[in-house]
Amino acid sequence: MSFTAEVRDELARCEPSCEYCDLATLAALSRVCGTLVAGSGGYRLQVATETGAVARTMIGLTHKILKLKTEFTVRKSVLHRVRNYLIVLPDQPDLEKALVLLGILDRQGNLVAGIPHHAVARDCCRLAYIRGALIAGGFVADPRGDFHLEIAVTGEQFARALADLICQVGIHARVNRRRSSYAVYVKSAEDVRNLLHIVGARRCVEDIEDVRAMKSVKNDVNRLVNAELANQGRSAGAAQRQLELIEDLKRLGLRDNLPRALADFCDLREAHPDLSLRDLGQAARPPLSKSALYHRVLRLEKLVADSSGKTQ
């Protein structure tokens, strides 16, 4: 099961917070993945989906709230090997009233472009409406990759109304056009986590937190490894320059007449060509600090520079 399917399934099992929340969820489901067909015989509402959670929720809430008859068909795609569920609310005496209640039609029989106020009048109903939209058309990327959440809808006015509704619950949402549809999306990892949490996908949020913790550990390990490799590279480069400095001392005839401290450093570096200054100091007897060895390197560099200047 994909992560999106897990999110939809968990959201479909959430209990309503008030007596109107189920209506808000059903209104969003009907609007996001429903198609209204008008003919001489009246209206017909069709909901086609490949998601079992959508079909289950749509049928259950339609019977519970609207008390309407539904027709249910399961079709299987030979090409994609997936099931397709078709739920139809055929023309019946109370269907037009139900369409007004769901915010699909207004009282004059016109199509509603945005989100009806009566469906989202309460804070809990706003969350229920967003939950229904996520169940119907939501996509949540696998948290092991980039964090991303979006809801595919039709109609720019509805898309912007849904984005505003999400913003009202404290989550920053944007709208992007996708050919003949629109995507209401949330990009920030923190916003994706918070939105899923407040609409009821708590178990999926725990999965996200586990993945984020694992990513954090891996990033910390990678930073430490990269830092260590960089340090090793710098140490190796410094050691090579010090060996070249010793060769310059030999070329200038200074190597055999160095003070004891500088001569000991040269012997130590030649004996341990790969060690950093800190580790080289630990190899000395008695041990020496990195600072002490660094100052000896500076003295050797000055000797070479002064001798080279006199030679020129």
Automatic annotation (TrEMBL):
One Gene Ontology MF term? endonuclease activity
NCBIfam families for this protein: DNA_bind_WhiA
Superkingdom of origin: Bacteria
**Keyword DNA-binding carried by entry:** yes
Its keywords, alphabetically, are:
Cell cycle, Cell division, DNA-binding
This chain's source organism reads Collinsella acetigenes
List, in alphabetical order, the GO biological process terms annotated in this UniProt record.
cell division; regulation of sporulation
The family database entries (PROSITE patterns) matched by this protein are listed as:
INTEIN_ENDONUCLEASE
Q: What does this protein do?
A: Involved in cell division and chromosome segregation.
Q: Pfam families per the record? A: HTH_WhiA (PF02650), LAGLIDADG_WhiA (PF14527), WhiA_N (PF10298)
What protein family is recorded?
Belongs to the WhiA family.
Name the chain's protein.
Probable cell division protein WhiA
Name the PANTHER family for this protein: CELL DIVISION PROTEIN WHIA-RELATED
| Positions in coiled-coil regions | none
- UniProt-listed InterPro entries: Homing_endonucl, Intein_endonuc_central, Sporu_reg_WhiA_N_dom, Sporulation_regulator_WhiA, Sporulation_regulator_WhiA_C, WhiA_LAGLIDADG_dom
DOD-type homing endonuclease domain boundaries: 101-171
